[in-house]
Amino acid sequence: MKKNSVKIWAIYLLAAGSLMACGTQDIQTGNLNVIPLPQEIVETPSAAPFVINSSTTICYEEGNEKLAGTARMLAGYIKEVTGTEVKIGTKAGKNCIILKVDPSITHKEGYELNVSVDVITLTGATEAGVFYGCQTIHKALPITDGKALASLPAGTVKDFPQYNYRGFMIDVGRHFFPKEYLKELIDVMALHNINYFHWHLTEDQGWRIEIKKYPKLTEVGSYRKETITAPGSGKFDGTPVSGYYTQEDAKEIVAYAAERFITVIPEIDMPGHMLAALASYPELGCTGGPYETATKFGVFKEVLCGGNPQTLQFAKDVVNELMDIFPDAPYIHIGGDECPKAEWMKCPKCQAKIKELGLHDTEEHSKENQLQVYFMNEVEKEIAKRGKKMLAWDEILEGNPNPETTTVMAWTGIKASVKAAQLGHSTIVCPISHLYFSNPGYNRLKGISSVERVYMFEPQSEKLTPEEKKNIIGVQGCIWTEWTKDSVKMEWQMMPRIAALSELQWCNPERKDLNGFLKRLRHQMDLYELYGYHYKEDIEDVTISVKPKGQDGIAVVELNTFDNASVYYTLDGSEPTSESLRYTEPFMINRTTTIKARAIRNGRESNVTEETLTYNLATMHSITP
């Protein structure tokens, strides 16, 4: 963040009379280069900034309740970030932040922001566009903590998103999170211009949404007796897990998200991942049970019976209640992933249904896979009756679904999104390799490398033609909660990588610049800290880079942080402190040495980064055959 501190008398020369109430309080000026980076920013350094003080009024169009709600939220952001309490009204004048709608702006979520010394005018194509412009104001403000007045630099911003679907998924099936905490996570999504909350509501390990026609789903299926302690350990913690959302709870979450222009997409995963439902209603399975809500994680052979009419009716009843709870959701996600067919191969009802439908094994699709497609298509017809579309994971492609009616969420890899788009499906890209923030393999990446993996990912593969690329309608990050049962771990998995995700979703890929992003990341993380979020702190650690100098066995060492923080280091194996050597420029080593370094920011110490350079005859020499 750029901070320019000036005395109030200097501002008088440019805006005499408008700031009389400010006394001699200092002013700090923010920066319009926020995350996600707007499409176009033009600053006017020679012009005076707009200073926010207690006389500032946020003005909105009278009678527009959505703008009124956004004005209240912006006032709250300003209070939290700067300590200044502003007014809200409908009559515009000087010292105003004016919110208005102009449908002539091209993109429905686009906005234009004009900042001058007297007024800020924020115009959106829709109320959603105004909201995203308010988020830009929110993130452009300097964090003053009431010790100085905040101002925004004079200039203009013209902005709109790259993708219409900008999603984040949270799994509450494995571990339950209370509705008040989900609201906090929705606020995190809003901070990053995310507009879809994909709510994964059911799993083998727990059913989390009330379905009134099937009360046992929550009476029985929302409970498991214990949980495995680690992958493959065979040991269990003996601690029961339970919890579910009433339909009123869910409607409350939907309303809270809608105020922030976020649409909630519910998911009931079927016909696999259904052990909690089978424990509640064993007659829905191929064998009739008994079944138990899963205490381990993985893929289970016990799935809904694909040939039982009662099971299909159950699925239709559930999605109909879902559509009542989520009336504004354009999609209903019905999963379709990881459904083993071993039980279907033995089940008389499934095999009878296969025969009735005239299904046969083909080179590409088994008859059981085709039975799943039939099952999903029947559910989809129920969804289509209500004017909605079906969303499903990319395994749905194993049965050749209709691209006109099925939107694919491609998670298994980049090949899946390429295949889905080539087949003509509207496709949301969320590969496990880059955008599963809870994946234990990729979570081993630390610091800048973990952010870089997300930031440098390109959702539109070069294997797609320009026409096929149009089928990539969105990008999504996901958190699965097998090993995530508290808010701290939830948040460090999200942050700061969700900032990189937001740039994938919003920004022009031609402007992608990791170094520029990292420079802007510091302020975003300061906002996380202000709001009490737990970001993954290894992003603040020092990066040690060692390179050879010439052919003399000399190593050149560089110590860097993403935000150019003060770095202290030692070469004798001792722990670095603020009294140690301060890094100012690259230095050279020509012997076995242990380098230890840590960054210190406003008295807060990072973890120690350590690297030992062991010398022998080959060290720092090129290898020749």
Our count of domains comes out at 3
User: Would you tell me which CATH topology of the largest domain applies?
Assistant: TIM Barrel
Our count of helices gives 18
Low-confidence stretches: 1-22
Strand order of the largest sheet: 11-12-15-16-17-18-19-20
Mean pLDDT: 93
CATH domain class name of the largest domain: Alpha Beta
The total of beta strands comes to 28
Instruction: Please indicate the percent range of residues in DSSP E strands (runs of 2 or more).
Output: 15-25%
The CATH superfamily title of the largest domain: Glycosidases
Could you estimate the helical fraction of the residues in percent? 25-40%
CATH architecture descriptor text of the largest domain: Alpha-Beta Barrel
Structure in a nutshell:
The active site is at 338 (proton donor). This protein is α/β, with parallel strands linked by helices and 625 residues long. The protein folds into three domains: 8-159, Chitobiase, domain 2 (2-Layer Sandwich), CATH 3.30.379.10; 165-537, Alpha-Beta Barrel (TIM Barrel); 541-613, Immunoglobulin-like (Sandwich), CATH 2.60.40.
